[in-house]
């Protein structure tokens, strides 16, 4: 499809989905499922996941009563317009202004520079009638920082932009199809006025007289919508990883190369240890991310209930966990999808493998909802704060509880003696805890050598990100182990999940061996025992690998991959797909008479001479 056709088709699908949701009707969970089967980014994502939650989280009761019924019935369509041409990560650096005018009781929204243009918001370019806009609030000449406002963008009769608003689509993005179904947009305000009651005022307020009343709760609650979406992105990472792994695993069982003496049957590529060493950790990651996603959902629900009761104690941890796990899982999944493409050899590069589009549509997850490095630095700040409070009497809780055992974890030596010890959950956990704590403490020690903490932080950014990743990996491993300790129906299933859990943990040890050795969390002998155990786990997973991806229960239609077909009938179907290509509509291609024939004839003539 052309961009225009793709966009229009996505509108058609979205509206059909909305009709089904209402007519059947579907529950919230079923609607989410439908979103997955729709399988295309579109304006509904931003309306439901960001616009509505922003009003719910930051609006007053009156604002919710006014706007939510309209939004819930989709009588208005909204998006989340925060990022600008000049600033995305640095939210405090946004330039759009919202100046209160006491004469008219309105805010005047203005884009003072080109870099202040809103740039990127999904659904903004062509669809949304409304947006939650983030702008600097100015009253009486004083800048109070960034706040949210509900703004109507387009005329409700003919969809034209309201006077004072310039709006459009930012253009084609990475890949063919992929995220191009979405109208990511730009927007400029030219002294555009909105009534005062359209500032989202649950947190801070502006009175009729123009007095600014700051929030009596943490101002970071304004970032709540991002926290909520980051949490869902972790579960989505598992879905995308599982999809790629399903394709690569099934195809690896079908594909044969080498290994036959005298013309016998060749080896299935899945039997090569190198293939297993690249594929099975990704299979394990798909399961690991699912379990940590379930746990994160619980954490998010818990913090939301606490916030409603004005208990803000766990907000920093919820922020650190959602930011860090969003970052870690999306980076691993993007890399994993690309690895799956390579695991499928040349055919993985074909569009009909399903992998190129999956990669193109998935990879912006490393950037949207917070650049992955910027988010890990938030985790690092949280860790440095936690380390600095050790010994102050305030015991670290939740995912940093292990830091409370700093004395032991800083000096303990791993008691792994034989390969099977690497299947001991306590030993594995302690290894990850020791590595994470030692990396964090080492950063904190290095930081303390700087007179200026911020300057030290800047200098040590790369080390801080590594320490943050180590902490996030510990969370994933520990939540997988907790899952195994819970009720799992069927001993066989439990055994398979156990194998995957230890593959996940041991492959991380192998991948980040430098960290584990340099922090003395393990010795090189213990590292080689881990490798030995890993190889043995691969052998145990091998006979069940295809069943473990069938368990994701993805239909062929959803996978959209010739290589990942359930029936394994890959080669005839590759031919079928090739023959569908428009280039094969004619035997002699368009352009032959114009370019190829004259070229060949010229050679023939010169040959005769
Ligand atoms: C084959 C075809 C396949 C097709 C498949 C299709 C399937 C597609 C899959 C996808 C499916 C669904 C996807 C989901 C849909 C959603 C779509 C998403 C669209 C994206 C939307 C966006 O991107 S919106 C914009 C997001 N922007 C950002 O994330 C900006 C990042 N920046 C920030 O968050 C902040 O600026 C910052 C955290 C980096 C820094 O903030 P600030 O400068 O204010 O703060 P400080 O650093 O000074 O910190 C101050 C203290 O505040 C704490 N803090 C910061 N943030 C928070 C928070 N959120 N909550 C709580 N506390 C917070 C910070 O830690 C500091 O604390 P102290 O140190 O204690 O002071
Ligand atoms: C597909 C897609 C959809 C989007 N949808 C929306 C939307 O609906 N609404 C919306 O408001 N926004 C949206 N965005 C914007 C998105 O949220 C931002 O692009 C994202 O937050 C990253 O910000 P940035 O572009 O400013 O990156 P930058 O911050 O400019 O990042 C550039 C580089 O600088 C590095 N960097 C930046 N700051 C630091 C630092 N402090 N320390 C170390 N390194 C740093 C980053 O790691 C990165 O390598 C979308 C983006 C994409 C790609």
User: In which range does the helix fraction lie?
Assistant: 40-55%
Unreliable stretches: none
| Biggest sheet features | 6 strands, mixed
Quote the distance from N terminus to C terminus: 48 Å
Cofactors, ions and other ligands in the entry = ligand LE4PLURH, flavin-adenine dinucleotide
**Roughly what is the average pLDDT, rounded to an integer?**
96
Number of strands: 11
Radius of gyration, in Å, reads 27 Å
Strand content: 5-15%
Shape: globular
Helical stretch count?
20
Which structural category do the helix and sheet elements fall into?
alpha+beta
GO molecular function: acyl-CoA oxidase activity; FAD binding; fatty acid binding
GO biological process, one term: long-chain fatty acid metabolic process
Keywords: FAD, Fatty acid metabolism, Flavoprotein, Lipid metabolism, Oxidoreductase, Peroxisome
Domain Acyl-CoA oxidase C-terminal: 424-601
Q: What does this protein structure show overall?
A:
Strand 2 (97-101) and strand 3 (106-110) form a beta hairpin. This protein is α+β, with helices and mostly antiparallel strands and 609 residues long. The chain starts with a helix and ends with a helix. Helix 3 (43-58) packs antiparallel against helix 4 (61-72), helix 7 crosses helix 9 (372-388) and helix 9 (372-388) crosses helix 13 (461-485). It contains 20 helices and 11 strands. The mean pLDDT is 96. The strands form 3 sheets. Strands 1, 2, 3, 5, 6 and 9 form a 6-stranded mixed β-sheet that branches. A 3-stranded antiparallel β-sheet has the order 4-8-7, with no helix packed on it. It has a two-stranded antiparallel sheet with strand order 10-11. The site of flavin-adenine dinucleotide (FAD) has 23 residues, from strand 1 and helix 9. Residues 424-601 form the Acyl-CoA oxidase C-terminal domain. Its cofactor is FAD. The active site is at residue 369. FAD binds at residues 83, 122. It is found in: Peroxisome.
């Amino acid at each position: 499809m052309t961009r225009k056709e793709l966009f229009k088709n996505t509108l058609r699908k979205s509206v059909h989905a909305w009709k089904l949701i209402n007519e059947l009707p579907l529950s919230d969970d079923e609607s989410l499922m439908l979103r997955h089967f729709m399988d295309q980014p579109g304006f509904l994502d931003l309306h439901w996941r960001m616009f509505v939650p922003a009003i719910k989280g930051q609006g007053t009761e009156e604002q919710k009563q006014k706007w939510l019924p309209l939004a819930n019935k989709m009588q208005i369509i909204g998006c989340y317009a925060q990022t600008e041409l000049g600033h995305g990560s640095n939210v405090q650096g946004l330039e759009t202004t919202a100046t209160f005018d006491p004469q008219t009781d309105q805010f005047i929204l203005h884009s003072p520079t080109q870099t202040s243009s809103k740039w990127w918001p999904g659904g903004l370019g062509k669809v949304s009638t409304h947006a939650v806009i983030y702008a600097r609030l100015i009253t009486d000449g004083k800048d109070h920082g960034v706040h949210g406002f509900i703004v109507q963008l387009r005329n409700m009769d003919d969809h034209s932009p309201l006077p004072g608003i310039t709006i459009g689509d930012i253009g084609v993005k990475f890949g063919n199809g992929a995220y191009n179904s979405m109208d990511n947009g730009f927007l400029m305000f030219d002294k555009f006025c909105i009534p005062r009651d359209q500032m989202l005022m649950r947190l801070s307020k502006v009175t009729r007289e123009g007095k600014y009343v700051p929030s009596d709760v943490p101002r970071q609650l304004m970032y709540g919508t991002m926290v909520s979406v980051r949490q869902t992105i972790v579960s989505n990472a598992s879905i995308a990883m599982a999809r790629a792994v399903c394709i690569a695993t099934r195809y690896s069982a079908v594909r044969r190369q080498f290994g036959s003496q005298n013309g016998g049957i060749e080896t299935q590529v899945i039997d090569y240890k190198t293939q297993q060493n690249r594929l099975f950790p990704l299979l394990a990651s798909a399961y690991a991310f699912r379990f940590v996603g379930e746990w994160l959902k619980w954490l998010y629900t818990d913090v939301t209930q606490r916030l409603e009761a004005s208990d803000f104690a766990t907000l920093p941890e919820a922020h650190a966990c959602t930011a860090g796990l969003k970052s870690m899982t999306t980076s691993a999944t993007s890399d994993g999808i690309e690895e799956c493409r390579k695991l499928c050899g040349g055919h993985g590069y074909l569009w009909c493998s399903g992998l190129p589009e999956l990669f193109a549509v998935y990879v912006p997850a490393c950037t949207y909802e917070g650049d992955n490095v910027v988010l890990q630095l938030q985790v690092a700040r949280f860790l440095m704060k936690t380390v600095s409070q050790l010994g102050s009497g305030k015991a670290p809780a939740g995912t940093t509880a292990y830091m409370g055992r700093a004395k032991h974890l800083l000096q303990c030596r791993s008691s792994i003696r034989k390969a099977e010890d690497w299947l001991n959950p306590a030993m594995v956990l302690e290894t990850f805890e020791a590595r994470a704590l030692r990396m964090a403490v080492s950063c904190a020690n290095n930081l303390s050598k700087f007179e200026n903490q911020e300057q030290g932080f800047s200098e040590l950014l790369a080390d801080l990100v590594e320490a943050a990743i180590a902490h996030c990996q510990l969370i994933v491993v520990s939540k997988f182990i907790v899952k195994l300790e819970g009720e799992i129906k069927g001993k066989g299933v439990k055994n398979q999940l156990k194998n995957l859990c230890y593959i996940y943990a041991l492959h991380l040890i192998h991948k980040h061996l430098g960290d584990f050795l340099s922090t003395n969390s393990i010795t090189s002998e213990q590292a080689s025992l881990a490798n030995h155990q890993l190889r043995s786990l691969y052998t145990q997973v091998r006979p069940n690998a295809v069943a473990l991806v069938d368990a994701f229960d993805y239909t062929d239609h959803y996978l959209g991959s010739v290589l990942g077909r359930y029936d394994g009938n890959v080669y005839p179907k590759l031919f079928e797909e090739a023959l569908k290509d428009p280039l094969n509509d004619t035997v002699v291609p368009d352009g032959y008479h114009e370019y190829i024939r004259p070229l060949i004839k010229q050679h023939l003539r010169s040959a005769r001479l």
